[in-house]
């Protein structure tokens, strides 16, 4: 049975009611107090205080202070008026029970509304934090792009300056060669002139030449002499040269023959080597070696080895413009994009390389493994672990003995399991 607390004091004004409830020797917390617009309850087992208020109050702004064994309530009235008593008098049990039940229902509804409000507030805070994070990431991304653009402009300027210097050096060499050639021509002319002058001088020991009249105008001079014309060599005789090629030996055994696919791969490679972009109007200033995709690929590989990834990308870009059928150009450029964190471009170049590395034959196994691994790495760095695992498993099918790829695939599987458990 609860012990009812009857000792309390109260006073009022037109707008508020002040209630003082002594509770000596009892530890009180806010959880022991329950208040609605017409119901006040303090439950500290075995003690119990309950009051059905005379008129409704504003339970939202009303307060309760706990200290020195006393609970002091400040209850603000909804309507300004003077109460005849603190509690409702002459109320039967049914009405009291109804008021209690309504108070509990209102309390539940209020708690539910507060929970919903907290949830909405939390979502708003999350949304604000996400927007702030996105703005920071966007600013950081823009800063990095600006740095990349500045670096690209700097490298482009250096490349243009180097080209200009090379062009000037070539021009100087050409002028020097022309000067030397002109000098040699002049020397040859002088020698020929001297030789002709020698041949025109008559021998002192010769007898006098008898003058003979000639038909027509003029006559032979005693100093003139017919010079022999140079005899040109006869044209070469035509002939037919026969060339015999040895048969191509493929690595696969005849029982697993893939000769048709390997022949198709060789044919595609030969066509790709012959393919050169026809629109080279804006590349006329380049030297001959700079118009060679293989030379540009080797140049990009050297720049990649020294860590100059932006310059390597520029070299691969020019090579792709000259010949867009060579899969190794896209494969190497994907490696550069991975280093530069251009993950979407790395995925795009790896996919393009895989399109060109068809049909799958032993000659292009190594390139296909690299393409799958690089695209899978880009997917994983974008937290697309499922797509990344698919590419790593495709690489393992081609090279099942590669322990490094197997370990990386196992790590991705653990990441996927951890992500599923967290969700």
From TrEMBL:
PROSITE patterns: CS, TPR. TPR repeats lie at residues 369-402. One of its GO terms (molecular function) is nuclear estrogen receptor binding. InterPro entries: CS_dom (IPR007052), CS_DYX1C1 (IPR037894), Dynein_assembly_factor_4 (IPR052004), HSP20-like_chaperone (IPR008978), TPR-like_helical_dom_sf (IPR011990), TPR_rpt (IPR019734). One of its GO terms (cellular component) is extracellular region. One of its GO terms (biological process) is outer dynein arm assembly. The keyword Chloroplast does not apply. SMART domains: TPR. Residues 3-87 form the CS domain. The keyword Repeat applies. This is Dynein axonemal assembly factor 4. It comes from Oceanodroma tethys (Wedge-rumped storm-petrel). The gene is Dnaaf4.
């Amino acid at each position: 049975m609860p012990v009812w607390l009857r000792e309390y004091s109260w006073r009022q004004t037109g707008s508020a009611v002040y209630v003082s409830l002594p509770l000596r020797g009892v530890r009180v917390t806010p959880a022991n107090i329950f208040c609605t617009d017409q119901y006040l309850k303090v439950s500290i087992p075995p003690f119990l205080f309950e009051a059905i208020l005379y008129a409704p109050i504003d339970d939202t702004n009303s307060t309760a202070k706990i200290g020195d064994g006393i609970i002091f309530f400040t209850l603000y009235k909804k309507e300004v008026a003077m109460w005849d008593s603190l509690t409702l008098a002459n109320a039967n049990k049914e009405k009291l029970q109804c008021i209690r039940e309504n108070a509990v229902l209102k309390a539940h509804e209020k708690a539910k509304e507060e929970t919903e409000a907290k949830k909405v507030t939390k979502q708003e805070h999350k949304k604000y934090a996400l927007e702030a994070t996105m703005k920071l990431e966007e600013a950081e991304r823009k800063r990095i792009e600006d740095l990349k653009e500045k670096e690209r402009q700097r490298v482009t300027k250096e490349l243009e300056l180097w080209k200009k210097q090379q062009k000037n050096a070539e021009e100087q060499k050409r002028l020097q060669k022309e000067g030397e050639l002109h000098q040699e021509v002049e020397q040859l002319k002088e020698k020929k002139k001297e030789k002709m002058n020698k041949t025109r001088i008559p021998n002192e020991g010769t007898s006098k030449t008898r003058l003979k009249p000639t038909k027509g105008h003029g006559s032979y001079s005693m100093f003139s002499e017919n010079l022999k014309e140079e005899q040109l060599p006869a044209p070469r005789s035509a002939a037919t040269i026969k060339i015999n090629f040895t048969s191509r030996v493929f690595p696969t055994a005849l029982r697993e023959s893939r000769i048709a696919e390997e022949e198709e791969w060789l044919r595609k490679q030969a066509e790709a080597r012959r393919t050169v972009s026809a629109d080279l109007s804006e590349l006329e200033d380049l030297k001959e070696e700079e118009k060679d995709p293989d030379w540009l690929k080797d140049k990009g590989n050297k720049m990649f080895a020294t860590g100059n990834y932006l310059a390597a990308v520029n070299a691969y870009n020019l090579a792709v413009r000259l010949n867009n059928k060579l899969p190794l150009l896209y494969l190497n450029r994907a490696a550069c994009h991975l280093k530069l964190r251009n993950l979407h471009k790395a995925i795009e170049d790896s996919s393009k390389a895989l399109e060109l590395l068809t049909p799958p034959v032993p000659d292009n196994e190594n390139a296909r493994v690299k393409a799958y691994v690089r695209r899978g790495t880009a997917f994983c760095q974008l937290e697309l672990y499922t797509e990344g695992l698919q590419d790593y498993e495709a690489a393992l099918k081609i090279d099942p003995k590669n322990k490094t790829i197997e370990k990386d695939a196992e790590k991705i599987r653990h990441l996927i399991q951890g992500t599923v458990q967290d969700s």
